[in-house]
Amino acid sequence: MNKPKSDHQFKSSWRWPESFESWVESLIDGFTVNVCAGLSPLGDVRIDLMSPPEIISSLSDAKNTSLSDARNVCSDLLEQQFVDHDVVKELYESSATTPPGLTSQIDTNGFLRADVFGGNRLPIGDDTADWVICDPPWKSLSTSSRRNLFGELTRITAPGGHILFNAWWVPTSDNTTLDQIRLRRDDERNGAGTPNISYASIHTVYPSPHTARYLSQTFTDREFTPEPESLKETIEAETAYRLEHIGGIDHTAYDIRSVGPDTSRRCPHCGSTKLLPATDNTKLDASGCERIYQCPSCEYPVPERELDAIAAGHIQQIRYEHGWSDIPPHELRGISPEDPAVEVVDRLEAEPGIGDGEGEAYLKSALGVELDTDQEFPSGSTEEVPG
Q1: Residues 65-118: pLDDT tens digits?
Q2: More confident residue, 307 or 188
Q3: Which of 165, 253, 265, 330 qualifies as a cystine partner to 307, CB 3.0-4.6 A?
Q4: Using alpha carbons only, what angle is made at residue 305 by residues 304 and 308, rounded to the nearest 5 degrees?
Q5: Interatomic CA distance for residues 223 and 225, integer angstroms
Q6: Residue-wise DSSP of 290-329
Q7: Beta strand pairing status for 157-167 and 176-185?
Q8: Which overall architecture, per CATH, does domain 6-51+108-205 show?
Q9: Sign of CA dihedral 271, 276, 282, 284
Q10: pLDDT at 249 (0 to 100)
Q11: CB 169 within 8 A of CB 145
Q12: Strands 111-113 vs 45-48: parallel, antiparallel or unpaired
């Protein structure tokens, strides 16, 4: 790995002051990953551009960083058996990138050297950490580098876990809520003049963006960006939260479009849009791992492929194939959904699953006309599904 550019190298001030480090330590619980760890000893695993020995060697090039400063910030990294040996002095005064014979005298247990800004994946598995703490270099990081870094922090954090991020910007992600922002003033090391200011933001990671969006809209102590752009997104968020956190149904078991307010996806037998992820698929011998939805009105188990076909305007084809209609799909083409012939409407309303007065609504659905409301073409029909 090439030597990091100067703006990404460390100075003694990049180890948190004692009071702030103690506050962070009081928060973290469980398996913790420290990304851009610098010389902080916090975390079960520490990941950074440079190893601790390399960082110490670079401190002598930093402005206003004395040997005393280096000893102070590195004290927790010294192996106990070398406390009588001035390892920091030798590393500090060395001109070599990795001084020979000295690297083993600095605690690098749990340290991983990785390019955290190169657009690569961090060397940690998905959903691994209970806490992730990060204090990246604040200079010369492009928007894409910042976005990729926080995306990786989110990826390695287990659902329900937390990220503490300290910088002068506050990151956001679709799968996280922003729970707290602490304005940090470095008064301990900047007693005179304007102290360095940063934002320590705490985020919670959730398994789906819908849960994060719902919590952000219902609890005043959370913020979320971006905001829902429509009533449809708000309803989807509430639906996903209810299914996962009240119904215990994992978000991967369904497509939010099929259980949300999308009127283009509806039961082919009765037209209901109030579908639920099926918990009992014994009524349908579906192949593979296809997702199935249960219609609460007529109890027909709807496979996802049928919902996709319905959304594309092929509901009559599905009903015809199931034997619920004796009208071939091509016979409905060319009929005006606004002014259909009375005999066509009567013929439709005589078929299973379509109640009296619902023929025109069904015809619009069959012709791909989006209904304005959550309108079911039958009036609560529960007659038995043929076959």
Answers
A1: 566 666 665 666 555 444 455 656 665 665 544 444 444 444 455 677 777 777
A2: 307
A3: 265
A4: 90
A5: 7
A6: --EEE-TTT--EEEHHHHHHHHTT-HHHHHHHHTS--S-H
A7: unpaired
A8: 3-Layer(aba) Sandwich (3.40)
A9: positive
A10: 86
A11: no
A12: parallel
Position 124 confidence tier, pLDDT thresholds 50, 70, 90:
confident
User: Does position 174 have pLDDT exceeding 50, yes or no?
Assistant: yes
Give the burial string for 296-311 (b: 16+ CB within 10 Å, else e): ebbebbbbbebbebbb
Q: For the chain, give every domain's residue range.
A: 6-51+108-205, 255-366
* Residue of 380, 327, 336 lying closest to 360 (CA atoms): 336
Query: In the sheet that 129-134 helps form, which strands lie side by side, from edge to edge?
Result: 111-113, 45-48, 32-35, 129-134, 157-167, 197-205, 176-185
Helices (H), 229-303: 231-241, 256-259
Per-residue burial over 277-287, b = 16 or more CB atoms within 10 Å of its CB, e = otherwise:
bbeeeeeeeee
DSSP state of 116: T
Spatial separation of the C-alpha atoms in residues 70 and 88, rounded to whole Å: 7
Q: φ and ψ at 176, to 5 degrees?
A: -125, 155
At residue 332, what are phi and psi to the nearest 5 degrees?
-85, -20
* 157: β partners: 129
Range of lowest pLDDT (140-144, 192-196, 367-371): 192-196
CA distance 196 to 193: 10
Q: Which residue has the tokens 């004796």?
A: 326
Higher pLDDT residue, 2 or 289?
A: 289
What is the Cβ-side half-sphere exposure of residue 82, based on CA atoms within 13 angstroms?
A: 19
For residue 253, the SS3 value is helix
Task: State which amino acid sits at residue 61.
Answer: D
User: Look-up: residue for tokens 């959904």?
Assistant: 337
At 238-282, the pLDDT tens digits run 788 888 887 888 888 888 888 887 878 888 988 888 888 886 554
Measured CA distances, 93 to 70, 72, 317 (Å): 11, 16, 80
Token look-up 């009081």 returns 26
pTM above 0.70, yes or no: no
pLDDT at 152 exceeding the cut of 80: yes
